[in-house]
Sequence to fold (186 residues):
Amino acid sequence: MSPVLAAAESARPHRVPQLSAGDVAQIAEVFRAERGRLLAFAYLLVGDRAGAEDLVQEAFISLQRRWNSLTDPQAAVGFMRVCVINAARSHHRRGFLARRHVHVADLEGTEGADAAVLLAEEHREVAAVVRALPRRQQQVIVLRYWAQMSEAQIADVLGVSKGTVKASASRAVAAIGKKLGAKNER
Fold:
């Protein structure tokens, strides 16, 4: 093979490895079991159905690409949560840049028909307050209370110290309490 063809071959993005029928069946089972939870998790992070679906789709594509390198198939869910968190960060960066340079139409209140399935009525107000938090606090709250992760797990996923997780959680809980308390006093 010529050096040019070899370089082009190695530079191909997103190569999908050959998977056995058993591997495909395991990935399909993970998809059936976890898609709904990951979609709700992503929705809490980005606040819109289409963006959440994109994040979950990317997480499953990443899982398929890296399936052979996973030492434990049970680690797939944790791997995909990390993928969703990282993709949510990129999603927010892209949105910030788009709003900064391009006029974006206000689509507030244009939820999909199944938005009610993702969040029950009593949780919508809390979710709105969580989405208004600074990004790090939002991520910590979603990982702690929605994904039921420990402080150590959250620190590992976000690449920060346990102290940062504790401080972010404390500030977030205080802000949520203040915001919801003020609404209830009206």
Remarks:
- The radius of gyration is 19 Å.
- Confidence is low (pLDDT under 50) at residues 1-12, 96-108.
